[in-house]
Amino acid sequence: MKYLYKEFQKIYFNLDKILKLFFSLFIFMEILWIPFNSWASEEILALSGHAYLSSSNIIQVFMEKWWVTVLFLLLFLANILIAYLQMALIFVSIRQLLDKKVKRFRDYLIDIKEGMTVVMKSTNLSKIVFVLFFSVVLFPFLKRILNIYYYNKLLIPQFILDYLSQNSMLLAILISSSVIIFFWIASRLMYALPQIFFEQKSVAQALRFSLEKTKGAKQWKYFFQLLWVLLQSFLTYAVLSGFFLGLQILADNLPQVFALPIAIINFTFIQLAYYSAIAVFMIKFVGLLTGEHLPSYHRQRLHHGLRLTIMTLSALVFMTQGILYLYSPFTTVPVTISHRGVNNENGVQNSLEALQETAKLKPDYVEMDIQETKDGNFVVMHDTDIANLTGNPGGTHDYNLKELTQMTASENGMSAPVVSFSDYLDKADELGQKLLVEIKVTAQDSASLTHNFLQRYGKRLLAKGHQIQSLDYKTIVEVKKYDKQLVSFFILPFNSIYPTTMADGYTMEYSSLDQNFIVRSWFNQKSVYAWTTNDKDSMMKMMLLNVDGMITDNLTELNSLLTDVKENLDYSYILSLYVQQQLDIF
């Protein structure tokens, strides 16, 4: 207990410097640099002549105009340089805190300026590459401190992870083994960082120094020392956030008029705990690498007012975030959309039988898929290869509509006839069920696919309030040219540069959605649908992002969650999700 008190006293002595460091980084990254990156990326994309960046056009965007590629490359290089200097600033700042000499804040800033000047003079591409590789690959805990615009866009969508986890028992072993191996490599190479930042050594010299220092039996000593540093910060955050979560569990038994303000206060303290944990980690980490520690200060007059003022300002910022996080998302309710017309495997996807059962749960929309047939008609089918569902080889373009509707699709232990879109639409209108029709486009389609579809069904879709979505932007353009009132969504498989399109909104894979995309959509008056949210946690996360709709295979769970939100909001659960996100280092 005495040790903890002394450690707290040391941190409190430097609290003004620590909070100003993080506050300055926050202001620069969140308010200046990231918005600038968004704007610059969109402007460069506009210069390319493309309205969006997706897997379908990424080659054209980067290959059609060489100077656009150069601009993107320069912006990317600027980002990694900023990230490198951000890491250098944190190391230099923490190193100054470890100095035995007591410094006034002005002297502290002067020393940081001198240290950063030296770092910048010795900066080269190899140092940048190594530091960022160490930070985001070998030791990804550090990426929580960095905020690299393009790096945050690089992730594996959740639907791919779900597919891999269902089809490979080795995946969990592979990931776990990779984490351990990368952590071990990080413990072998970590002493290169102070050599680069403080001694101005080349990467090769720094690596040789670190490998020599950690060779032999000593490598496990440093492995566990690094692990202990990480655990200290993790435990700091876990214990503090756990305490405030416990308070919120008690507060949730009170009427919501009291539970919400208490939740906002607890959110504020959880944020303070998070940045405290980061401060603990960086101080311990730099201390481990340099062999220095925060000095014990003799009792002297401290400017408590300054420290309390900085803490109060930080708390006000976090409290504002808490209001936006805990109150704003629940002022509206997202629309519910059944994915492929099913709910909890209650039938064969895109079948009339599943539609009838799912419609009983009254989703706002039923999402379904149509494809063109050999004779230019439209069949309800998701997969381009129909063998998996029907047992018949080929795709929809290998058969006419009559042949396809004589086939039987089997899934989830059930069977149902393949259905034409005309019959599916008739049944939906009979049930009073609105549809979200996805127009699937393939290389085998006729040039007039969308035109023919709209001529046959466009007026009816508009009159009944149905909506359209597609991965193909040309299809969206044709829909909007046909009638601007026919609501259409452009499907984006991942979140990259914000698009500028004619679509009424965007359908995006939920794990790549972020607050920046939602805010931009709000400003541009575009709706956002998230797909495919199938569990309570992912649904609540999307509600907290304030999406306009959710596409799900589990409509029962989504309806239940929305009922709970309306009748009895569980703030402790919401805060626990936030804590989980903060602890997610990958």
From TrEMBL:
Identification of the protein by name: Glycerophosphoryl diester phosphodiesterase
Key words of the record: Membrane, Transmembrane, Transmembrane helix
Gene Ontology BP terms: lipid metabolic process
GO molecular-function terms, A-Z: phosphoric diester hydrolase activity
Domain of life (superkingdom): Bacteria
Pfam family, one: GDPD
UniProt key word Membrane: yes
CDD domains the record matches: GDPD_memb_like
GP-PDE domain residues: 334-562
Annotated PROSITE patterns: GP_PDE (PS51704)
PANTHER family in the cross-refs: GLYCEROPHOSPHORYL DIESTER PHOSPHODIESTERASE (PTHR46211), PHOSPHODIESTERASE (PTHR46211:SF8)
InterPro entries: GlyceroP-diester-Pdiesterase_M (IPR018476), GP_PDE_dom (IPR030395), PLC-like_Pdiesterase_TIM-brl (IPR017946)
The keyword Transmembrane helix belongs to this UniProt entry's keyword annotation: yes
Residues spanning the membrane: 21-40, 66-94, 128-150, 170-191, 222-251, 257-287, 308-327
